[in-house]
Hints:
44% of the residues lie in helices and 0% in strands.
Amino acid sequence: MAQVGWVLDYLDDIVSDFSVFHRVDDITALDGPSFFRMAWRLAAYTGVMQARANAEQQDEPAPAAPGSAPSSRQQRDVNPGTQTTLQADPAFAGIFSFDQAGS
Protein backbone atom coordinates (compact mmCIF):
# COMPACT_ATOMS: atom_id res chain seq x y z
CA MET A 1 0.00 0.00 0.00
CA ALA A 2 2.87 2.38 0.73
CA GLN A 3 4.06 1.99 -2.86
CA VAL A 4 0.78 3.26 -4.32
CA GLY A 5 -0.96 5.09 -1.48
CA TRP A 6 1.07 8.27 -1.98
CA VAL A 7 -1.09 9.20 -4.97
CA LEU A 8 -3.99 10.06 -2.67
CA ASP A 9 -2.00 12.86 -1.05
CA TYR A 10 -1.18 14.42 -4.42
CA LEU A 11 -4.13 13.48 -6.62
CA ASP A 12 -4.98 17.02 -7.79
CA ASP A 13 -1.33 17.68 -8.64
CA ILE A 14 -1.04 14.35 -10.43
CA VAL A 15 -4.14 15.09 -12.51
CA SER A 16 -2.65 18.44 -13.48
CA ASP A 17 0.75 17.01 -14.42
CA PHE A 18 -0.89 14.14 -16.33
CA SER A 19 -2.77 16.63 -18.50
CA VAL A 20 0.39 18.61 -19.25
CA PHE A 21 3.08 15.94 -19.63
CA HIS A 22 1.17 12.81 -20.62
CA ARG A 23 -1.76 14.57 -22.36
CA VAL A 24 -4.20 12.49 -20.33
CA ASP A 25 -7.26 14.51 -19.35
CA ASP A 26 -9.11 11.68 -17.58
CA ILE A 27 -6.86 9.54 -15.39
CA THR A 28 -9.78 7.23 -14.62
CA ALA A 29 -9.67 6.05 -18.25
CA LEU A 30 -6.29 4.44 -17.58
CA ASP A 31 -5.83 0.94 -16.25
CA GLY A 32 -3.97 0.72 -12.94
CA PRO A 33 -0.58 -0.41 -14.26
CA SER A 34 -0.50 2.33 -16.93
CA PHE A 35 -1.53 4.98 -14.41
CA PHE A 36 1.19 4.05 -11.94
CA ARG A 37 3.90 3.71 -14.61
CA MET A 38 3.19 7.27 -15.75
CA ALA A 39 2.56 8.70 -12.27
CA TRP A 40 5.90 7.36 -11.01
CA ARG A 41 7.71 9.27 -13.77
CA LEU A 42 6.11 12.67 -13.10
CA ALA A 43 9.00 13.76 -10.89
CA ALA A 44 11.23 13.68 -13.98
CA TYR A 45 9.26 16.52 -15.59
CA THR A 46 9.33 20.18 -14.56
CA GLY A 47 5.92 20.21 -12.92
CA VAL A 48 4.34 20.37 -9.52
CA MET A 49 5.25 16.76 -8.72
CA GLN A 50 8.92 17.47 -9.41
CA ALA A 51 8.72 20.49 -7.10
CA ARG A 52 7.13 18.34 -4.40
CA ALA A 53 9.74 15.58 -4.84
CA ASN A 54 12.58 18.10 -4.63
CA ALA A 55 11.09 19.69 -1.52
CA GLU A 56 10.65 16.27 0.09
CA GLN A 57 14.30 15.43 -0.59
CA GLN A 58 15.28 18.66 1.14
CA ASP A 59 12.83 18.01 4.01
CA GLU A 60 10.99 21.21 3.20
CA PRO A 61 7.28 21.36 2.58
CA ALA A 62 6.38 22.13 -1.01
CA PRO A 63 4.19 25.17 -1.51
CA ALA A 64 0.51 24.37 -1.32
CA ALA A 65 -1.69 25.02 -4.29
CA PRO A 66 -3.76 28.19 -3.88
CA GLY A 67 -6.96 27.48 -2.00
CA SER A 68 -5.98 23.97 -0.98
CA ALA A 69 -5.46 22.61 2.47
CA PRO A 70 -2.39 20.47 3.11
CA SER A 71 -3.19 16.80 3.37
CA SER A 72 -1.63 14.37 5.75
CA ARG A 73 -1.32 10.62 5.59
CA GLN A 74 -1.78 10.52 9.33
CA GLN A 75 -5.29 11.94 8.91
CA ARG A 76 -6.31 9.40 6.27
CA ASP A 77 -7.63 5.92 6.72
CA VAL A 78 -5.23 3.36 5.33
CA ASN A 79 -6.66 0.95 2.79
CA PRO A 80 -5.05 -2.49 3.21
CA GLY A 81 -4.94 -2.89 -0.58
CA THR A 82 -6.97 -6.05 -1.02
CA GLN A 83 -9.18 -6.44 -4.07
CA THR A 84 -12.31 -6.07 -1.94
CA THR A 85 -11.18 -2.93 -0.11
CA LEU A 86 -9.81 -1.25 -3.25
CA GLN A 87 -13.07 -1.85 -5.12
CA ALA A 88 -15.11 -0.55 -2.18
CA ASP A 89 -13.05 2.61 -1.59
CA PRO A 90 -14.40 5.59 -3.59
CA ALA A 91 -10.92 7.15 -3.58
CA PHE A 92 -9.79 4.37 -5.93
CA ALA A 93 -12.88 4.37 -8.18
CA GLY A 94 -11.85 3.75 -11.76
CA ILE A 95 -8.16 3.28 -10.97
CA PHE A 96 -8.06 -0.48 -10.46
CA SER A 97 -9.73 -3.20 -12.44
CA PHE A 98 -9.60 -6.87 -11.63
CA ASP A 99 -10.08 -9.64 -14.16
CA GLN A 100 -12.59 -12.18 -12.96
CA ALA A 101 -11.34 -15.73 -13.54
CA GLY A 102 -13.81 -17.72 -15.60
CA SER A 103 -15.75 -14.66 -16.73
